[in-house]
Amino acid sequence: MDTRPKIEEKFQAKFMVNFIAKMPVWPDPKDPRLTEHVTGVDQEGKEVGLAVTVERPLTLFLNGREIVTMMTICDYPEYLAIGYLLNQNMLRPDDDIVAIDYDDEIETVVVRTKNETNFEEKLKKKTLTSGCAMGTVFGDVMEKFETVSLNKEATIRTSWMVALFKAINTAPSLYLEAGAIHGCVLCQDDTVLVYMEDVGRHNAVDKIAGYMYLHGIAPHDKIFYTTGRLTSEMVIKTVQMEIPILVSRSGFTAWGVSLARQVGLTLIGRAKGKRFIALSGQERITFDADLDQIDDEPRHVSRKTGKK
Amino acid sequence: MDTRPKIEEKFQAKFMVNFIAKMPVWPDPKDPRLTEHVTGVDQEGKEVGLAVTVERPLTLFLNGREIVTMMTICDYPEYLAIGYLLNQNMLRPDDDIVAIDYDDEIETVVVRTKNETNFEEKLKKKTLTSGCAMGTVFGDVMEKFETVSLNKEATIRTSWMVALFKAINTAPSLYLEAGAIHGCVLCQDDTVLVYMEDVGRHNAVDKIAGYMYLHGIAPHDKIFYTTGRLTSEMVIKTVQMEIPILVSRSGFTAWGVSLARQVGLTLIGRAKGKRFIALSGQERITFDADLDQIDDEPRHVSRKTGKK
To answer: What is the ipTM of this complex?
Structure first.
């Protein structure tokens, strides 16, 4: 049985569109459903105990159609479902969502729309011809990508970055608790609005996309932070969400850079402590931090794989 | 135009089944197709140049059916195609592969089998009922998972681990060249056999699976090393490949641990330098390394995101 307060109850509305969200949202590493304690041995054969993140399968349906089974920590299945469908371009902003039904016993979430979606139409045609439609999603997504126009007035200050990285890295999180997890953070100026974690970085992004959509949060003045790499997929999702600035602790791929430049996304990578490299959209950066007065990221908050 | 020597020519055989592979296979970070030089600015606004990994879309077809579009560095599209299909349980060892056609201009790889595969049959039924079949793959994979029996006699020595980690971390690689990439390594005893890299860790695994299948390499005495996290998916793939020992630099998820224990896979995580934690199948480990005589991993080879 799912004992979480129903999102509907939390926000006193059947759906969350146009209702003001309670922000900031921080990770809740103490939620007992999210980690498990296990024991094993170390390099000397000595018994050791540690906390590990719990991942669960979640099968997503759009109306009567099974879309995908995802592995997720399942803290926000409704946001994940909506964000996934939006970022895959399977759901469009004008589709009228009438229900999001999560059932934790059978591990499913069903998104229902008033009318059949454009994606379902396409899928129907597709399955009659060459089969599975997952491959077509890519083309659709690229088509939308080319039509997005990002806010040119948005800005990011290097002093904000220093403050954000510190806030994100020192906040209690599943990462600090158990490791092996990605984080994504929606920010405005030097402030964290929504910090989501998940076993896959795409789930974390999708949860934020779902949150923004359901609470009607404007993307144009936001900054998106991720612990994951700046691949083409990450760039495409950020652009789909119409957020003008993407920042990551991790590195770049060439296509990620090329797509970001094509659409004028500000792309900042290898961002830790006071350091970063920007490879696209540098004109949105204001260099106002006094770097000599700021220390490098201390080693104990350094986000490494495999160490707490 | 694809200027790489055709795999067929390299191995003097139409297909590579039962032909001895040239091992070890190491990354080729100097291959000009795999990285690109870009310039940007750092935290002080100073111009900086760096190498970034190139990712390309590759659309996979099984006979006439479009399966998926993957983002890959595309160094071994044929191995990737076969490994993906095997690990998704879309292709079974008894399916008779008659061609693997890679076309770099239209970015497709087509795997052709003599007869229609069981997966295609299922897909046909599925599309007539509830639509896209990607969701069904999960159930099929779990079904196979439960039937695998891993070699109980396989062993891993702590001294081998020390040697392997050193060899892997100091070998020239795309990771050291450009970062933002995952690595997977097939090992035997203290020796590296096949080291593959890719933008997604699953691609790197799949390329090794394809390599093993096409060259008829036995899995039962091998060790699988990955830079990625030990999630359920990673455990399932290793078990599908029938490799009894899985080692990672990164951390664990609870379901990864639980699946490994269920099937008796040796699961070693947070493995760096001389340190590790084993959470399943400890009986295959021989603690023979003299740890006092071995240094910790030097910081410069430490695999961090975002730093060379």
So the answer is: 0.81
